[in-house]
């Protein structure tokens, strides 16, 4: 809106200038100066208005990114600082470390176990909340409760649930004669436990985003579908889903970024913070943290940061393509 | 003050975003906390003191302010040692944002002694002889610079459950218990007798905890005097590794890692009968075992004396008021003040003079059957003969070593396999 004002004002003045009711005595030179000013105003102002974001992004986004790249090609101790230039050696070291690959597998596994069910579940919950419920606000507030609970408190609750020996789940399993699950030992079990924590926290948040988008879908589309004899389920798949496409893309991209950077939950899953005795649940960010703050090698840690950056961009692109394909398939008419 | 934290969940408030872009984290940290060292009102100097867990300094700051008009003290307290350590490392790297006085735990002291140019030299002829020799040595650089004043130490005794001892037909009186296991071999032998009688209860709290106690009695364990890594060749390291794992296999250990959820709950479930306990551990036991009767402390530690944990106060060169900070640190670590801290939070003094002070030797703990813990720990402190040498890599190697022990506990690897994978980890670290 603000960007439109000077442009509109500029054109108006331009049109109504010399030929209008204004006295024509004004000197032509001043006019051209004003006109030039106007033109400059029209062209440059929009950039000025959006500049703050890009300036901030430059300072807090690009500069650190560049600096991290700079650090990653040097020998760099956290405490004693910069050492020699080593080229790509840090990257070679990281790629040659078996724990990096293990962390990569863990990250992807936890990411798939959390993001996928999370988006599907959020969609379902949103569809339910979109229906005519009694006490709408109460239900809607309810799904956000996990999100506002401090992660530390959540870790406490889940710590009780997923204890290997005295945990609630295992005590329940043993009570009915089943084998206890070794949550902190078995790799897949640990990933499941961590994904549960992540899903518990983020599903409600995503559901609300979906809900907001669903409410923006014009109701007459549904009416038309209903008249055509479409069932509720059919309406969901043929009307709601295609019209949610931009929102689904948004949620998938944000949860990709969040999922690949997952840190707090696996780190709080045990006291050591290294992801288990055999790195069963060490993620890439935890691996980065270990290199930077425990081994105190910022050079290799920065190399990991860049590798992770590359991975996220890659996965986000794949996601985008996939969702586009899916969206086109579903919403045939478009 | 303890190496690990009693409440591990509270340690991780780092966000994923913060961890990704390192430089952003660095700049954000220094920007958000800023230096609160500005001179506030006219003539007042504000000193910041950063500690973790409980140092027992709360009342002392007011006392110092009252005695020194013109000095104001701001206390920054981290919930756990690792939080504090992360903050300290980050701001050392950033070159700004540190407090005037920073507390440092002994296990990461060596890494900071290497960076001694970032710390003010605190050596002072007047303070010579204030601390136990080994306490001072660990904070002194090769060229004689002292980077930290000692606060507390962690002399270890054995805490035990008298009620479970009775069940197993063992003596329960703390003086009799103290004669049972002067060596590790005897400790394990009594343990085998115990688990034969009480099969549902383990003898000690965790395999890794015993390993840590034993390795802390070795002068050169993972690194030699020149900080070359010798962990792979050192027969003592391998022997301890095999011993603890064999004892665990015989059913003496709970096999839960220390500070884990299961470990904390084992206190409530008669999970084990004994554990090594430095002074600061008494509070941890009391917290985890609240409502459980029968805890007591025996004036003995297998293999002689042992020290676990303890801290220092340092003054970073970043401080705008190094002189005032040094004076405050010296005052806080004086025997009189440390005794008050001991009374309020149980941090056992590292100061020679405090060790025979009646305020210390007369101290008892109700929870531990009114044991004279002050006297017991003072005796235990005297039994400590050496400070294990901990070079800059000690902490990292120790972590890998503990993880290997844990893998055996969890049945993921045999003792030999775990030793081999520890060697592989060693290559990676050093």
Give a description of the structure.
The complex is a heterodimer of chains A (334) and B (430). With 334 residues, chain A is an all-alpha fold. Chain A has a domain at 98-330: MetI-like fold, CATH 1.10.3720.10. Chain A is 73% helix and 3% strand. Chain A is built from 14 helices and 2 strands; from the N terminus they run H-H-E-E-H-H-H-H-H-H-H-H-H-H-H-H. Chain A has helices spanning 4-16, 28-72, 89-95, 98-130, 136-148, 151-161, 168-175, 187-215, 219-227, 232-243, 245-260, 264-268, 284-294, 298-330, and strands spanning 74-77, 81-85. A two-stranded antiparallel ribbon of chain A has the order 1-2. In chain A, a hairpin with a 3-residue loop joins strand 1 and strand 2 (81-85). In chain A, helix 4 (98-130) packs parallel to helix 8 (187-215), helix 5 (136-148) packs antiparallel against helix 8 (187-215) and helix 13 runs antiparallel to helix 14. The two termini of chain A are 30 Å apart. Chain B has 430 residues and is of the alpha/beta class. Chain B folds into 2 domains: 19-152 and 308-366, 3-Layer(aba) Sandwich (D-Maltodextrin-Binding Protein, domain 2); 155-307 and 388-429, D-Maltodextrin-Binding Protein, domain 2, CATH 3.40.190.10. Helices cover 43% and strands 14% of the residues of chain B. Chain B contains 19 helices and 9 strands. Chain B has helices at 16-20, 22-33, 58-67, 81-94, 109-113, 133-138, 162-167, 174-178, 184-197, 207-215, 235-249, 261-266, 279-288, 322-332, 335-345, 358-361, 373-383, 394-409, 415-429, and strands at residues 45-52, 71-78, 101-105, 148-161, 202-204, 272-278, 295-298, 307-314, 348-349. In chain B, strands 1, 2, 3, 4, 5, 6, 7, 8 and 9 form a 9-stranded mixed sheet that branches. In chain B, helix 3 links the parallel strand 1 (45-52) and strand 2 (71-78). The longest helix of chain B is centred in the C-terminal third of the chain and has 16 residues, at 394-409. Chain B is globular and about 70 Å long. The two termini of chain B are 27 Å apart. At the A-B interface, helix 2, helix 6, helix 12, helix 13 and helix 14 of A face helix 1, helix 2, helix 4, helix 12 and helix 18 of B.
């Amino acid at each position: 809106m603000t960007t439109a004002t000077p442009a509109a004002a500029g054109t108006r003045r331009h049109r109504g200038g010399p030929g209008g009711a204004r006295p024509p005595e004004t000197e032509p030179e001043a006019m051209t100066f004003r006109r030039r000013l106007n033109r400059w105003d029209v062209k440059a102002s929009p950039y000025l208005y959006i500049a703050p974001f890009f300036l901030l992004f430059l300072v807090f986004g690009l500069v650190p990114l560049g600096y991290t790249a700079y650090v990653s090609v040097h020998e760099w101790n956290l405490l004693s600082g910069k050492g020699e230039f080593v080229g790509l050696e840090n990257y070679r070291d990281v790629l040659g470390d078996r724990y990096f690959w293990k962390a990569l597998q863990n990250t992807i596994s936890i990411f798939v176990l959390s993001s996928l069910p999370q988006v599907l579940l959020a969609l379902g919950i949103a569809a339910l909340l979109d229906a005519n419920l009694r006490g709408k606000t109460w239900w809607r507030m309810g799904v956000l409760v996990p999100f506002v609970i401090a992660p530390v408190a959540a870790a406490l609750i889940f710590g009780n649930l997923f204890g290997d020996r005295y945990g609630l789940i295992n005590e329940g399993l043993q009570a009915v004669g089943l084998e206890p699950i070794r949550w902190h030992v078995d790799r897949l079990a640990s990933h499941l436990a961590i994904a549960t924590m992540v899903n518990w926290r983020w599903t409600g948040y995503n559901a609300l985003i979906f809900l907001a988008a669903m409410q923006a879908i014009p109701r007459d589309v549904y009416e038309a579908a209903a008249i055509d004899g479409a069932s509720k389920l059919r309406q969901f798949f043929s009307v709601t889903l295609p019209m949610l496409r931009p929102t689904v893309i948004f949620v998938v991209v944000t949860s990709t970024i969040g999922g690949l950077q997952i840190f707090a939950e696996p780190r709080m899953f045990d006291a050591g913070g290294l992801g288990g005795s055999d790195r069963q649940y060490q993620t890439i960010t935890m691996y980065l943290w270990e290199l930077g703050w425990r081994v105190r090698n910022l050079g290799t840690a920065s190399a990991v940061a860049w590798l992770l950056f590359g991975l996220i961009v890659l996965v986000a692109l794949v996601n985008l393509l996939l969702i586009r394909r899916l969206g086109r398939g579903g919403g045939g008419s478009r | 003050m303890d190496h690990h934290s009693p409440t591990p969940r509270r340690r991780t408030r780092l966000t994923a975003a913060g961890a990704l872009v390192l430089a952003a984290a660095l700049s954000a940290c220094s920007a958000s906390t800023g230096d609160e060292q500005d001179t506030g009102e006219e003539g007042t100097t504000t000193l910041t003191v950063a500690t973790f867990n409980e140092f027992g300094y709360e009342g002392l700051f007011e006392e110092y302010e009252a005695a020194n008009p013109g000095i104001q003290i701001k206390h920054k307290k981290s919930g756990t040692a690792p939080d504090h350590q992360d903050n300290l490392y980050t701001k050392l790297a950033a070159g700004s944002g540190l407090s005037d006085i920073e507390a440092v735990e002994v296990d990461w002291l060596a890494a900071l002694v290497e960076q001694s140019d970032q710390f003010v030299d605190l050596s002072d002829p007047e303070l010579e002889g204030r601390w136990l020799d080994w306490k001072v040595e660990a904070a002194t650089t090769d060229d004689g610079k002292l980077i930290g004043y000692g606060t507390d130490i962690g002399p270890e005794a054995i805490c035990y459950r008298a009620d479970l001892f009775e069940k197993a037909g063992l003596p329960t009186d703390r003086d009799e218990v103290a004669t049972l296991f002067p060596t590790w071999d005897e400790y394990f032998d009594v343990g085998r007798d115990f688990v034969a009688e009480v099969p549902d209860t383990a003898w000690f709290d965790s395999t890794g905890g015993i390993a840590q106690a034993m390795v802390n009695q070795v002068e050169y364990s993972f690194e030699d005097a020149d900080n070359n890594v010798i962990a792979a060749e050192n027969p003592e390291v391998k022997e301890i590794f095999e011993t603890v794992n064999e004892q665990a296999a015989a059913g003496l250990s709970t096999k839960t890692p220390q500070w884990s959820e299961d470990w904390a709950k084992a206190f409530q479930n008669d999970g084990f009968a004994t554990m090594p306990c430095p002074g600061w551990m008494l509070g941890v036991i009391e917290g985890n075992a609240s409502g459980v009767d029968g805890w007591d402390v025996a004036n003995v530690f297998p293999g002689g004396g042992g020290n676990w944990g303890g801290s220092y106060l340092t003054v970073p060169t970043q401080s705008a008021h190094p002189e005032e900070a040094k004076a405050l640190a010296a005052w806080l670590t004086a025997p009189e003040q440390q005794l008050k801290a001991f009374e309020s939070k149980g941090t056992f003094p590292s100061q020679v003079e405090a060790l025979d002070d009646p305020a210390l030797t007369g101290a008892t703990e109700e929870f531990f059957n009114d044991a004279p813990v002050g006297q017991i720990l003072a005796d235990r402190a005297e039994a400590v003969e050496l400070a294990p040498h901990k070079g800059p890599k000690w902490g990292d190697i120790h972590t890998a070593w503990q993880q290997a022990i844990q893998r055996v506990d969890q049945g993921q690897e045999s003792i030999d396999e775990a030793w081999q994978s520890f060697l592989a980890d060693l290559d990676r670290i050093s």
